[in-house]
Amino acid sequence: MSKYNELFYLGKKFMVDTNIEFKGSSFTLSVLHLKTSILAEIRAGLATKVAQAPDFFYLVPIVVNIEQLDDTIEFQAVKSLIEEFNFTFVGFTGAVPKEQRQLIRELGFSFVNTAKASANKKTAALSGSATEVIPEEAHTAQNNFFTDKVHRGQIRSGQQVYAKDQNLVVIGSVSAGAEVIADGNIHVYGSLRGRAIAGATGHHRAQIYCQNLEAELVSINGNYWLSESMEDHWGTPVYINLTDNELSSSKLI
Amino acid sequence: MARIIVVTSGKGGVGKTTSSAAIGLGLALKGHKVVLIDFDIGLRNLDLIMGCERRVVYDFVNVINGEATLNQALIKDKRVSSLSILPASQTRDKDALNKENVGKVLEELGKSYDFIVCDSPAGIEAGAMMALYYADEAIVTTNPEVSSVRDSDRILGMLASRSQRAELGLEPIKEHLLLTRYSPKRVEEGEMLSVEDVEDILSIPLLGVIPESQAVLKASNAGEPVILDKESDAGQAYQDVIDRLLGETVDFRFLLAEKKGIFSRMFGG
Amino acid sequence: MALLDYFLRNKEKPVTTASKAKERLQIIVAHERNNRNKQPDYLPQLTEDILVVLRKYIQVSDESFSIKLDNKDGDLNVLELNIELHDEQSKN
User: Fold this and answer.
1) CB contact under 8 A, B154 and A176
2) Is the Cβ–Cβ distance between B131 and B36 less than 8 Å?
3) Do C47 and B57 touch (CB under 8 A)?
4) Residues A59, A87: contact at Cβ < 8 Å?
5) What pTM does this model have?
6) Does any CB of chain C come closer than 8 Å to the CB of residue B53?
7) C-alpha distance from residue B59 to each of A120, B45, B88, C32, C67 (Å)
């Protein structure tokens, strides 16, 4: 028995069915960058790579980046080739003109937007070099932000909280000897006396906010400060972010 | 059903046994049926502080191993008949206590007592973990001193995650802060952490402040819990703790340094 | 000097808590050391049993009773029993 709730949002009517739910999520996907449009060369490159570790690549979801190609490719042929090597084909991606994106969609293939679109169009390397598989951030969902993991209460010495693929919001204080980690931002509505590690899996735009900075260590995307570097804003409400790969703290309120 | 209260701290030597004895006796003097359990494995103290060391025949582990019944092991206090003590074992076997066998003993005690006060040993090993596992409430005994405060914080983490209430997703253990060996004079001189400092770091409600007092040593020498020394500051502070545990609102005393006159300075202590 | 001592000796030396503590410790530590020196396992139960029998006939309080197993000269085992009798009262 399903119940329909009707919502009105910006003039559009949404039907919310309580049997299913759509949510935005981020996933890290492997992206295959094509440097040649010649199928035989692509096949050769894939064969070499997959032979190195066949089990590793088996059924792995792959997004194919075509921005380095000057010539058009046969999209269906590329998809079939990918699937020949037992990858799971997700879609195409890259900083390509709008027309090309549209064409791809019209042909019935998914086009996935990247988080950072490259400004320059790279010229194709026709030296026959093998294609490369580079793991890169590709969001399959429409939203590019994390959801919040909310922790109510103190985080005590010896405890650790990890907000995987989320921001972390602590309503309480983080004691000395405790550790809070998030792939996104960290907000502490209280005193931060332990260690805070934001952007843990590589987000350099993550930030750390707290009402009272007395931390042992803060880190964003691997760049860290120990207590001695926090003298400017020690004991005050602060937010910390990464500017040009350097941490900087600013007065919060 | 009995209220199970664990007196714990993490750090050693901060006043757990002194407090357990005073609180157990104090509750019994108010007419409640109280049993005091020493959860140490190997080093028995509670019996000495209670003054019943010469009447220990059987202990906690004897009961668990079926070598004695609870009735045989429990020692009735000579001063208040509604107070009994279950002494600790002198064994070094830390596997002697486990959740099942401790649970059974507590369940049986729960039928005849209003309060079960568990005196925890220091540390975070077996004895301490067993003492806190079944607790409904915890009195976290802390000295206004850095390592004691940090260890108390650690034990608070354990209370929130390693207790039965945490494992079963029940209402969490009610936490109380008992600040012991407090010296208002040194706090005013800026040499000692204040009540506010400790409250700020630990963020749990304050149950009581027990001033540093010579009465405590005298009490353990004599085997008479300090709450019986009604003239002493520590004794009175523990009495306030009892009243608060029983639901009364009592102002906190002994927070300010006494202005001693010349005579008390010459003759007093 | 002797005269002064005589007068002073009559005044009871106050029992300080430290001296009480020392006394309690001496008893209990000796007792525990004794236990560590291989007191047989049956001793606590033996104590209980003896007390039950005694109490059928006379009043015995826990402090007025002590039981100890001594190993004299390695060969001879002596079971020492001390009972302080009060007022020669009997139960019936």
Assistant:
1) no
2) no
3) yes
4) yes
5) 0.64
6) yes
7) 80, 12, 6, 14, 19
